Amino acid sequence: MPLPGPPTALETAEYLFNHVFRYYGLPEDIVSDRGLQFTSRVWRAFFKCLGVTISLFPGLPPPNQGQTERKIQEIGRFLRTFCHSHQESWSQFLGWAEYAQNSLRQSTTGLNPFQCVLGYQPPLFPRGGEPSDVPAVDYWFRESERVWGETHRQLQRALRRRRSTADLRRSQAPAYQPGQKVWLSTRDIKLRLPWPGVAEEPPLPLLVDDGTAYLVKEILDSRRRGGRLEYLVDWEGYSPEERSWVPRNDILDPSLLEDFHTSHPS
């Protein structure tokens, strides 16, 4: 799905619902990395309402996250090349690029994605067909065929590059025995450090006697719902879309309520 920029958590959830779930149905579980959209309160609340559980990868670099991350890298490299040479029309023919990707046989399975998901390979692009006498249709098919061929060349090149790069780093695996003590490197363990220039993850909840709590930046509004008083809370360290209504008894600092009602006497 071509987007003008990184989507918010709510936009991501809506895109998944409108473009994936309506074809394949609701999932039981969603596995993702720890991007800001996927650790968001909005993301968790959205899928809790749908009865979908959320599973997060540990903060490991791409080589340790399996085939999914490697495939994302391949597609990312292709899209950078493809979009650079088609800056005015890249989104128009993106469907053929995806079609070609899903028709590419994977060395690990001997099948292509279409065969894995559908059980069969749909017809490939009709190469060398007769040109149409309608100029608009003829142009569309000529561009589509060009995108199809270019996609396959780029993906094959990416596969060869990945294979040669991986072979350079490979060595004979050590023969470990059950119970043997080994050193564990922290290189692949994601630490929560405020590195300069890197967007920090949302703050962790505070541990209190009754469980966990989050810092409140400001109380914005109040309402009565079902006979009880609720407050609209802006959370410290979270974006505005994470604001949520909280029951009166869940606000642990009475001074927050006093300040709010002092400035909102009505």
Structure characterization notes:
By secondary structure, the chain is α+β, with helices and mostly antiparallel strands. It has three domains: 1-59, no CATH class; 64-168, no CATH class; 206-263, OB fold (Dihydrolipoamide Acetyltransferase, E2P) (Beta Barrel). It has helices at 9-24, 41-49, 66-85, 94-102, 113-118, 135-169, 254-263, and strands spanning 29-32, 53-56, 206-208, 211-213, 216-225, 228-235, 244-247. The strands form three sheets. The chain has a three-stranded antiparallel β-sheet, with helices on one face. The chain has a two-stranded parallel ribbon with strand order 1-2. A two-stranded antiparallel ribbon has the order 3-4. A hairpin with a 2-residue loop joins strand 3 (206-208) and strand 4. Helix 3 (66-85) packs across helix 6 (135-169) and helix 4 packs across helix 6 (135-169). The chain is extended, with a radius of gyration of 25 Å. 7% of the residues are buried. The model has no long low-confidence stretch (mean pLDDT 80). InterPro entries: Chromo-like_dom_sf, Chromo/chromo_shadow_dom, Chromo_domain, Integrase_cat-core, Retrovirus_Pol_polyprotein, RNaseH-like_sf, RNaseH_sf. One of its GO terms (molecular function) is nucleic acid binding. Residues 214-266 form the Chromo domain. Residues 1-121 form the Integrase catalytic domain. Pfam families: Chromo.
